Structures are given as structure tokens and as C-alpha cells.
């Protein structure tokens, strides 16, 4: 039996001002002092309120007719791209992370009172959940010294269906363990949350490349038009 | 044997885990444990039998997830699973006297407003389970592992409305003494006891060694029997073994006995051995004598306000005499109301009165909308204020806490229509000391009505501490002798009936000069006569200061800390950050203020301008050109989102000034046109839509914001009702684009004349055209450009 493990970081994910500026669309432009002040205020508020939590579980991975199958796990991987992504891996780790409902509430409250603070808080929270994902990845990787890892891959990327979100959470018992749910439209609730899968192998991954050059959205991407990148392509760099 | 008789025993023993036991017996990972009731009833029965043989008095059926949402892909209906589950439990319990509880767990989706599951839909899902439980012969209903007080309420209400079986309910708390959704132990206790649960407590999540602080708190807040059903600790991630051995588990349970626990079982990881060990320990223990002092209190799901000293009730959410508030209600502007709520809480209100009654709107619908929005935005408990019992009931039904009902009076008709509702939803109620013949002149007569209201409330089963009395403030200029009678009556109700008292204060000064002075003095006198809940405008500093002074002088505010914090000479605090830059010496004009995001200045300059200039001219020649310049800068990447919004905020301040002026003079509204905005059904990411709203409003358009997760029909209704020029729809995900498509189809089907504009992260111009939208807006700036094109 494989048990999901809860991870609550000892120190909450640090919000980097650079990341917040990125999500606010600043690119290489310099913010003025007042905007920096607002970002710092929001950062402090968020850090006081968010309750970062994550849960993960690992499963042996085998390939049946070229498609990856998680053993002892009710969760079925679907899609050509996840198969490619996990090429050469013998273990897959599923994780889910959230900043909790208190974060959503803080952002909604700010929007009702002061939209600018609402937008900045929202971007701070995006930076924080990305940071939390990185921390979870570090935690996971520490359990496999000397092994190699793929980048994280989430339901909704490429042809990995977003409809798998509920099954993903069910497998990790994320509803009960960290209070993370989906709604009928497969959106994660709380909003500031992430689910993803990471492959573990004995050799550097050869599978699906992530990054702008390989992205299906590369011709239409509004980040790229502004000479920027999204969270996913950043992870690939 | 029934549940009530079972409670005569010193302790009642529940069973242990079902899920982890079934996994040991071979339940496949990812399978539905409940399906085993049908596929492997003998295994389920075996687990039950193990617990009965270990000494359980009650077993929970294997129906934790037997709701129609979780069973969607199982191929079974809740009724099939529940009937088989009860059958298996009955078979195991046959001849043993053990009771069978219908187990009900969470639905598996978060309720609105955090999630998208509607409260009534949740009640309906639970009702289906309850009806099946009754039909197939469960002895009681056990609701467990709830983390959302709203969902727990939905389940208890469904149980109460569809059965007469006893209902027990437990929630799951974290070490922080809150659930994932922030619910506190006291809020659970006040709310569920109010709804008529027969026993309440804590299950899952924590181990028995971690429950002490939670049980202590629970024991202080409820008179009901207390349930604990903890996990056997946490599982070891490698072996999957749970931390507590049966003996160890039972030892920790024994430690909880002096705190007053009555009903004990185990959750995840516990086994028949665990339950046997608990039985052994409790058989030789004697239950603690509980002395429960009921504390008068009200609560939201996340905050309890004990009425142990003066608590200010904010009166501002009320349209009486407020033109802007009425206009906000007419365009269903919930943000306006939330704004009022947050301001009052910031100013020191601890409870908020909510009155949304104007003749032109559906008060019931608006009350529900407001209660739902307010409870997700402010922590302060609410006071549902309406003269219509149907409105009160609708508000209480969706309120996840213990609210106050404002109000009932001594008239029989009022008593018989309001009190049953108060009882059903476990609220507190304000009794007005008046009846059919009006407000009595003397304190004694008002006291008599108070007494009558109290007695009727008690007859209906409403506890004494939930009845508050309002002795009614009369206007001193009209009935000068009335003021002292009111004060006398307050003292009588307080001293002779021991009830909490409420008083709206500001009526006292109508028609007299220096109203503030009279209000403050009357408030101080009333507090000295025993007033507990003044209903006042907390934004009026003199009133809040009177309360602060009273609390200091009556030794409630120890060391005067609160008083000093509020009233010691304030250091001029920095205004909130805004990208203003240095304004010294600058020749300020409105355009400059807007472009630089200077809210206060924008409002001041506008007020000045209004003395000499026509409002529309200000909008057209100053505000909009300034916003256009800001928009162009944003488009070119010279400024960024925060500055754009700051400018919008400054423009909004200017608009507020204009609106206030207009509502004072002509009563007309400044509007260039009407735009209905919604984040589509299923979608909860509404920040983009909210930015668009702010921008559009500041160009002078009236925005009817329907919020997020908006049903198709509501969009249609609003577009028709408000005769909208544009309907703006937002969707974030590919999954919710479908909702957008359906919404547009519905609008087209009904030949709605409004142009449709869409936006969202994954939206493209192509796709917008494909699903029938007239315009695609890439961002808020483009949304404004479109509005200008369509409306002008």
C-alpha cells in the first residue's frame, strides 16, 4: 500500500519581488518606489495569512505498449505527451500543493477594497505557490539521491487532460489531507494550488522537452509577444 | 435500544476505521470503498462484526462517500449503495443490540463561494442519502469528517428535514484548532447545537494525543454529549502502519475522560483491537460531571463573538435614507455593500446588521446574495434584518454561523411567524418591546412585552441566552419623556430577566441640533443602564469613543490598552502606497491626479470643479481624456497594471464625488450606458473580470457585476432586465469556455440586443468569433475601447 505523505514547510515559501514583477507584466522595466512599497506590503500580508501545504506519493512506473502505467495506483495516465515526458523513468511522484483558502479570501477581500492591492496580492500568491512547488520538488528529490528527474507536468498541459484533476486529488487524498478540491469545471479550489507529476529515472530524462520552443502555444503566447516567459518555460530553463 | 437510551450508559463506544480495514482486505487502490457493499458484502460485514465483537455500541455503515457526486463513475446510485451498506451492517449487528448509523461524509467538492457547489444542491445531495438511510432502516445519522461548517450545516439540515432520526456530527480540525476552511471549535458548537444536532465532536486528522485543547474548548461551548473519533496517529510513509498501538490509543482516550467526553471511537488506522482497548479502558473509568455554563454568543464560521461585554453592531448596511445605497441595490452592486462591511469592521463593529429591503427589488434574493458574499469577505457575525419572515428565513438558511434575527415583536402574529424560524436555524433573536397597539409609554409596559416575548421564545425551545431585547429609542424632540423610560426598561430587562439588550441609538436626536452630542450622551447613558449591543454607525468616531471610554471606565478594557491604542495621539501615518511621485508645488488638475493615481486629490478637485462645472463636462473633458492617456501608456508598456489600476481608483474617487453630488441634486445617475459582467458558470477565477469592471466604471459606464460562477440564465435575466448595451463574459480555462459558449447561445436564442464581449486567458479572437461573441477584449484597456465603440 502506498501512502500519501503530507508536507508542510517549516518556513513558508518566500515571495521574490522579481517574480511578482514578472507576473505583473513588468518584464525588464523598473518599478517605481510606490509600486515596490505596495508589493512589499502585499508580500507581508500574504506571508501572515497563507497556509502552505502539500501532499505527495510515489508509484513504481512501467511502460505497457509504450504507455506509462502507475503500479498499485488507481490513477490512469492519459495522453501521448505524458508518455513521452516520463520516458525512461521507473518511478513517478504525484504531488499537490496549496496556499489554502485563507489566501483566496485575502485576495478577494483586497479586490473588494483596493483593486491594485488585489492584483498585486494575486501575483504575490502566484509567486508563492510556484515557490512552494519548487520546495516540494526539492523535498521529493531528496528522497532519491543520485537519481534524475523530469520537470513537473500537470493536468491541463499539452494533451494531459485537465479532466484528470479530480482523480489526481482522489489518489493523493488531497481533499482530506490538505483541503484541496476541484469543482465541476476541473478548476482547483483553493485557487492558488498546483498539481503535478514528476518522473524519476536512473539517467537524465530524454523525454518530452518543455520550454518555449516545444510549446504548442508558442505562436500565440502573450508572454512571448512581450519577450517574456511563463512559469512552465521557466521551470524548464 | 435507541440512541437516547444508549446515552444513559457512562460511555458510548463507536466503531473504528472502515476504509483502512477494507484496504487490508484487498480493496483495490482508487476503487470506491462503498461499492464493496454490493460486490463484497461479506467483507464489509466482517469488518462490522469485528467492531461489534470488540464492544462497539454503534457501527457506522460503509457509506462515507455514498453521495451522487462521488459515486458518479461507480455505476451505482446512492440508494443502491446505502441499502446494501445498511443490510451488511444490520446482518452483523443482528441480535447484538448494536445500533446502525448511516455514515455521511463530505460531498467531495467545496461549497460556494470558495467552490462552486450551491448550498441547496448540497442539501439535496445529502437529503438523497438521508432518505435512503430512513428507507432502509438506519437507527441514527452520523455526519463526519466535515471541514466546512457550511457543508456540515447542509448535512444536518438535510437530516432534520428528511428524518426524525437522531443526528450526530463531527468535524475535522487541524493542530491550529481550526478546520481547513477556518472554522473554529466554538463556531461549530454554537451552530450545530443550534441546528438541533444530538451530539457533536471531532474526528479524523489528529491523533488522540492531540485532542486535549480541542475537547477542552468544545466542552466549554456545548451542552451536548461530546464525540471523539481520532485517527490512530499518522501513517508511516514507508510501511503505511499507523503510529498508535491499541493500548497507546486507549491510554490517550482515558486522558480525555476528565474533560467530559461521552462517545468514543476511532478513525483512519484504528482496528477492532483499538476499539477493544478503548472499551476496556472506559469500562473501568467513570465519566466526568460536566458543568456547562452556556455563554451567550453569536458567530460566523470563523469568528465567535461572546456577548460578555459591550459589542458594537454596525448599522450601515441599510438603505433607509441612503440614495447611493439604494442605487447600489438596484444594480445589485454587492461590492458596494462589502465595502460598507469592511469599513465598519475596520472602524470597530463586531457584528453587522444586514438590511437590504427596498420595494423595487426581490429582497429575499438580495438577502441571500448579500449573506453569501458577506460571510466570505468579513469575519464578523451577521444580524439578519427584515420585516419579512420569508426574507429572514432565506438569510438564515445560507448563513453558516449563529446569526441574530432583527426582529420579532410582542404581536402574536410576529411571534408565531418568526420564532419557529429562529428555532429551526438556531439563531438568536431581538425582541422589540412593541405590539399591535404600538410602543408602550412606560418602562413597565415595555418590560411586560419583553417578558412575553421571552416566554414565547422559551416555549418554542429557543434558549434564554439567545433572546435579546430592544426597548426602543424614541425621538427626544417628539417624546421627550420617552428617553428615560427607554433607559429604565433596559435596566429592568437586563436585571430582572437577565437578558442581553439591544438599542438603535441615533433615533434619539432627530430634529435637534448637535445630533452627535445627543447620540453620544444617550449611548453612554444606555451603556450605564446595561445596554449590551448598541446598533450604531461605527464610522462615527464620537460613538465609538463613547464605547471605548465606557469599556475603560467599567474596567472591561484592562489597563486601557484598547482605549490608548485607539485614542493616543495618532502619528500621521503614511498614506497607502500610490505611484504619485512628488506632488509638492505641482499645479494640480484633475487630469494630473488621475494620471498619477491620487485618489484624495482627485475627489477634492472634482468637488471644487462641481461648484462651477457641469458633471458631464468634467467627465468628458477631464476624466476620460486622462484615462485615455493612461490607457495608451499601458498599451505601450510605459506603465504597468498597478499604475493603471491606481489611475482607475483616482478616477473612481472623482466619479464618487460626482455621483454624490448628482444624487443630492437631481437624483439622476451618471451613466454612459449599461454593461453586464460575469465570470461564467463553473469558473471562479474572477480577477480579470474585476479589473475590467473597475476600468469600465471609471469611464462612466454602469456595470452590473454578476460575480463569478454565474448561471447562464442569470446572465440572460440581467441583460434583459437592465436593458444592457453590452454583456461581458470572462472564462479562464478551456473547460469553462464551454460555459461561455452556452451562455452566448442562450443570449442569442432570446435575441438579446446587447453586444457580447468576451475575454480570458485562453481566449483568442478566432475562438471568440466561433462561439458567437461580437468582440474579443485582450485586456481591460481593450474592453474600454470596445465599450466606447459600442456605446460611445
Classification by helices and strands of chain B: alpha/beta
Structural class of chain A: alpha+beta
Q: What fold name stands as the CATH topology of chain A?
A: NADH Oxidase
> What's the CATH H-level superfamily name of the largest domain in chain B?
Homocysteine-binding-like domain
Number of helices of chain A: 9
Radius of gyration of chain B: 30 Å
Form type of chain B: globular
Helicity range of chain B: 40-55%
Query: Which chain pair has the greatest contact?
Result: A-B, 63 and 64 residues
How many independent structural domains of chain A? Answer: 1
Calculate the terminal CA-CA distance of chain A, rounded to whole Å: 36 Å
- Give me the count of strands of chain B: 23
Strand order of the largest sheet of chain B: 1-8-7-6-5-4-3-2
User: What coarse outline of chain A follows from CA principal-axis ratios?
Assistant: globular
Summarize this entry quickly.
Chain A is of the alpha+beta class.
Secondary-structure map:
The complex is a heterodimer of chains A (237) and B (792).
Chain A: E1 5-7, H1 17-23, H2 33-49, E2 53-64, E3 67-70, H3 80-85, E4 89-98, H4 101-113, H5 115-142, E5 148-149, H6 165-172, H7 174-178, E6 181-182, E7 188-189, E8 193-201, H8 222-225, H9 231-236
Antiparallel strand pairs in A: 1-2, 2-3, 2-4, 4-8, 5-8, 6-7
Helix pairs in contact in A: 1-5, 2-5, 4-5
Chain B: H1 3-6, E1 12-13, H2 19-24, H3 36-39, H4 41-53, E2 58-60, H5 78-93, E3 99-104, H6 119-135, E4 140-146, H7 149-162, E5 167-171, H8 185-195, E6 199-203, H9 212-221, E7 226-229, H10 246-256, E8 261-264, H11 272-283, E9 297-299, E10 304-306, E11 313-317, H12 323-330, H13 334-347, E12 351-354, H14 363-377, E13 382-385, H15 389-397, E14 404-409, H16 412-425, E15 428-432, H17 443-459, E16 467-470, H18 482-497, E17 500-504, H19 515-528, E18 533-536, H20 541-553, H21 561-567, H22 590-595, H23 599-612, H24 615-635, H25 641-664, E19 674-679, H26 687-697, E20 702-705, H27 712-721, E21 726-730, H28 734-749, E22 755-759, H29 765-770, E23 775-776, H30 780-790
Parallel strand pairs in B: 1-8, 2-3, 3-4, 4-5, 5-6, 6-7, 7-8, 11-12, 11-18, 12-13, 13-14, 14-15, 15-16, 16-17, 17-18, 19-20, 19-21, 21-22, 22-23
Antiparallel strand pairs in B: 9-10
Helix pairs in contact in B: 4-5, 4-11, 5-6, 6-7, 7-8, 8-9, 10-11, 13-14, 14-15, 15-16, 17-18, 19-20, 20-21, 23-25, 24-25, 25-26, 26-30, 27-28
Amino acid at each position: 500500500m502506498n501512502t500519501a505523505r503530507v508536507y508542510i514547510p517549516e518556513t513558508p515559501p518566500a515571495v521574490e519581488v522579481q517574480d511578482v514583477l514578472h507576473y505583473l507584466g513588468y518584464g525588464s522595466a523598473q518599478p517605481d518606489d510606490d509600486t515596490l512599497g505596495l508589493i512589499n506590503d502585499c508580500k507581508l500580508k500574504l506571508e501572515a495569512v497563507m497556509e502552505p501545504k502539500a501532499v505527495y506519493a510515489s508509484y513504481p512506473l512501467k511502460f505497457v505498449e509504450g504507455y506509462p502505467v502507475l503500479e498499485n495506483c488507481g490513477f490512469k495516465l492519459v495522453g501521448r505527451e505524458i508518455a513521452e515526458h516520463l520516458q525512461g523513468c521507473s518511478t513517478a511522484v504525484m504531488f499537490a500543493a496549496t496556499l489554502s483558502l485563507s489566501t483566496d479570501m485575502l485576495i478577494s477581500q483586497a479586490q473588494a477594497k483596493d483593486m491594485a492591492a488585489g492584483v498585486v496580492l494575486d501575483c504575490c500568491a502566484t509567486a508563492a505557490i510556484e515557490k512552494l512547488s519548487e520546495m516540494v520538488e526539492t523535498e521529493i528529490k531528496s528522497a532519491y539521491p543520485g537519481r534524475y528527474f523530469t520537470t513537473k507536468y500537470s493536468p491541463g498541459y499539452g494533451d494531459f487532460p485537465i479532466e484528470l484533476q479530480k482523480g489526481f486529488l482522489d489518489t493523493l487524498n488531497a481533499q482530506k489531507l490538505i483541503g484541496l478540491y476541484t469543482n465541476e469545471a476541473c478548476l482547483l479550489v483553493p485557487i492558488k494550488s498546483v498539481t503535478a507529476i514528476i518522473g524519476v529515472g536512473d539517467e537524465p530524462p530524454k523525454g518530452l522537452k518543455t520550454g518555449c520552443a516545444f510549446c504548442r502555444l508558442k505562436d500565440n503566447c502573450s508572454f512571448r509577444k512581450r519577450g517574456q516567459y511563463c512559469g512552465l518555460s521557466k521551470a524548464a530553463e | 435500544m435507541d440512541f437516547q437510551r444508549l446515552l444513559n450508559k457512562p460511555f458510548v463506544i463507536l466503531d473504528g476505521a472502515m476504509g483502512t480495514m477494507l484496504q487490508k482486505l484487498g480493496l483495490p487502490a482508487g476503487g470506491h470503498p462503498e461499492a464493496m457493499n454490493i460486490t463484497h458484502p461479506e467483507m464489509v460485514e466482517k469488518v462490522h462484526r469485528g467492531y461489534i465483537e470488540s464492544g462497539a455500541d454503534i457501527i457506522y455503515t460503509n457509506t462515507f462517500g455514498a453521495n451522487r457526486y462521488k459515486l458518479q463513475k461507480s455505476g451505482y446510485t446512492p440508494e443502491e449503495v446505502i441499502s446494501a451498506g445498511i443490510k451488511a451492517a444490520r446482518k452483523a449487528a443482528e441480535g447484538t443490540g448494536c445500533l446502525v448509523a448511516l455514515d455521511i461524509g463530505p460531498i467531495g467538492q467545496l461549497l460556494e463561494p470558495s467552490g462552486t457547489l450551491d448550498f441547496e444542491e448540497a442539501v439535496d445531495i445529502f437529503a438523497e442519502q438521508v432518505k435512503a438511510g430512513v428507507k432502509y432502516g438506519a437507527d441514527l445519522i452520523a455526519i463526519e469528517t466535515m471541514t466546512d461548517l457550511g457543508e456540515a450545516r447542509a448535512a444536518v439540515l438535510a437530516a432534520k428535514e428528511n428524518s426524525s432520526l437522531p443526528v450526530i456530527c463531527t468535524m475535522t480540525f487541524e493542530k491550529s484548532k481550526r478546520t481547513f476552511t477556518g472554522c473554529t471549535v466554538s463556531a461549530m458548537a454554537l451552530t450545530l447545537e443550534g441546528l438541533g444536532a444530538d451530539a457533536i465532536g471531532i474526528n479524523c486528522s489528529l491523533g488522540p494525543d492531540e485532542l486535549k485543547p480541542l475537547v477542552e474548548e468544545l466542552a466549554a461551548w456545548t451542552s451536548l454529549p461530546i464525540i471523539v473519533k481520532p485517527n490512530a496517529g499518522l501513517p508511516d510513509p514507508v510501511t503505511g502502519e499507523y503510529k498508535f498501538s491499541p493500548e497507546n490509543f486507549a491510554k490517550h482516550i482515558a486522558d480525555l475522560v476528565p474533560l467530559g467526553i461521552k462517545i468514543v471511537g476511532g478513525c483512519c488506522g484504528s482496528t477492532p483491537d483499538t476499539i477493544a482497548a478503548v472499551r476496556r479502558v472506559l469500562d473501568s473509568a467513570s465519566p466526568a460531571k460536566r458543568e456547562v455554563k452556556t455563554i451567550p454568543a453569536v458567530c460566523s464560521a470563523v469568528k465567535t463573538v461572546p456577548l460578555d461585554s459591550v459589542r458594537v453592531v454596525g448599522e450601515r448596511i441599510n438603505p433607509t435614507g441612503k440614495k447611493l445605497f439604494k442605487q447600489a441595490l438596484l444594480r445589485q452592486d454587492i461590492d458596494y455593500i462589502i465595502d460598507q462591511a469592511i469599513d465598519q469592521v475596520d472602524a470597530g463593529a463586531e457584528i453587522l446588521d444586514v438590511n437590504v429591503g427596498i420595494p423595487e427589488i426581490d429582497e429575499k434574493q438580495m438577502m441571500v446574495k448579500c449573506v453569501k458574499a458577506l460571510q466570505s469577505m468579513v469575519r464578523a457575525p451577521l444580524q439578519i434584518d427584515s420585516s419579512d419572515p420569508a426574507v429572514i428565513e432565506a438569510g438564515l438558511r445560507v448563513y453558516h454561523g449563529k446569526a441574530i434575527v432583527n426582529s420579532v415583536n410582542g404581536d402574536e402574529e410576529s411571534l408565531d411567524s418568526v420564532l419557529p424560524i429562529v428555532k429551526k436555524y438556531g439563531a438568536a433573536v431581538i425582541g422589540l418591546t412593541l405590539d399591535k397597539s404600538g410602543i408602550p409609554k412606560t418602562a413597565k409596559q415595555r418590560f411586560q412585552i419583553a417578558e412575553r416575548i421571552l416566554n414565547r421564545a422559551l416555549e418554542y425551545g429557543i434558549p434564554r441566552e439567545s433572546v435579546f431585547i430592544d426597548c426602543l429609542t424614541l425621538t427626544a424632540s417628539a417624546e421627550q419623556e420617552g428617553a428615560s423610560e427607554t433607559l429604565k426598561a433596559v435596566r429592568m430587562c437586563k436585571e430582572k430577566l437577565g437578558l442581553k439588550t439591544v438599542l438603535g441609538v441615533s433615533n434619539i436626536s432627530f430634529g435637534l441640533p448637535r445630533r452627535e452630542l445627543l447620540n453620544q450622551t444617550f449611548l453612554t447613558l444606555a451603556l450605564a443602564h446595561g445596554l449590551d449591543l448598541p446598533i450604531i454607525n461605527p464610522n462615527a468616531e464620537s460613538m465609538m469613543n463613547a464605547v471605548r471610554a465606557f469599556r475603560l471606565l467599567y474596567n472591561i478594557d484592562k489597563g486601557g490598552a484598547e482605549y490608548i491604542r485607539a485614542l493616543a495621539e495618532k502619528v500621521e501615518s503614511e498614506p497607502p502606497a500610490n505611484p504619485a511621485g512628488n506632488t509638492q508645488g505641482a499645479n494640480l488638475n484633475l487630469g494630473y491626479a488621475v494620471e498619477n493615481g491620487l485618489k484624495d486629490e482627485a475627489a477634492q478637485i472634482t468637488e471644487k470643479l462641481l461648484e462651477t462645472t457641469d458633471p458631464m463636462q468634467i467627465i468628458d473633458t477631464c476624466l476620460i481624456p486622462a484615462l485615455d492617456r493612461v490607457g495608451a501608456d499601458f498599451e505601450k508598456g510605459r506603465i504597468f497594471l498597478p499604475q493603471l489600476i491606481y489611475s482607475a481608483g483616482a478616477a473612481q474617487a472623482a466619479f464618487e464625488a460626482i455621483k454624490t453630488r448628482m444624487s443630492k441634486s437631481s437624483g439622476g445617475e451618471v451613466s454612459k450606458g449599461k454593461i453586464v459582467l460575469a465570470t461564467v458558470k463553473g469558473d471562479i477565477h474572477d480577477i480579470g473580470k474585476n479589473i475590467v469592471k473597475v476600468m469600465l466604471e471609471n469611464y462612466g459606464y454602469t456595470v452590473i457585476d454578476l460575480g463569478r460562477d454565474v448561471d447562464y440564465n442569470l446572465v440572460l435575466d440581467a441583460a434583459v432586465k437592465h436593458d444592457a448595451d453590452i454583456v461581458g463574459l470572462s472564462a479562464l480555462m478551456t473547460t469553462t469556455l464551454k460555459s461561455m459558449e452556452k451562455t452566448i447561445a442562450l443570449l442569442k436564442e432570446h435575441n438579446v440586443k446587447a453586444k457580447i464581449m468576451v475575454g480570458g486567458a485562453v481566449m483568442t479572437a478566432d475562438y471568440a468569433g466561433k462561439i458567437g461573441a461580437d468582440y474579443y477584449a485582450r485586456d481591460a484597456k481593450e474592453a474600454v475601447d470596445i465599450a466606447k465603440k459600442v456605446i460611445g
